[in-house]
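Anyone opening a protein record will find just a pair of labelled lines. With that in mind, the following record should read easily:
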Amino acid sequence: MAVIVQNGQTQQLGLLRLRGSDQGTIDGWRELPLNTAAGQIVAFGDVAFLSSGKMMVLGASERDAQLSVYSFDVDAAQVTSQGPLRDVDVVALTAMPLDGTVAAAVVTSTRLALRYEAQYRWEELLGDVSDAAYPS
């Protein structure tokens, strides 16, 4: 499971394993530090799996406080920006694992849903949206 953890003023993105019990024991925490050309991602808004080995995150770097969408493999060795969303404030991210394609969408602060088409290309889907989700 991927989670964003808030500890005081610091956020961390990581993977954890839940062991089965009534209380759900957390086991195997591993932080995923994400480094980009604009510095390390230090603020997180959302996270989603694209496949068993690839993820997307809504995050902001040390040098740019605006949240942007990034994709990366679960080893976090390579982090790729998925587009300049400079003209909108993204507040939510959703994705669905599909073989060979990326099914992802974001919701903006102006309640606009945008669907991922390709790197740097987000297509307007619908207005007056409060949240978005793909079926699981």
In short: The two ends are 14 Å apart (CA to CA). The chain is about 0% helix and 60% strand.
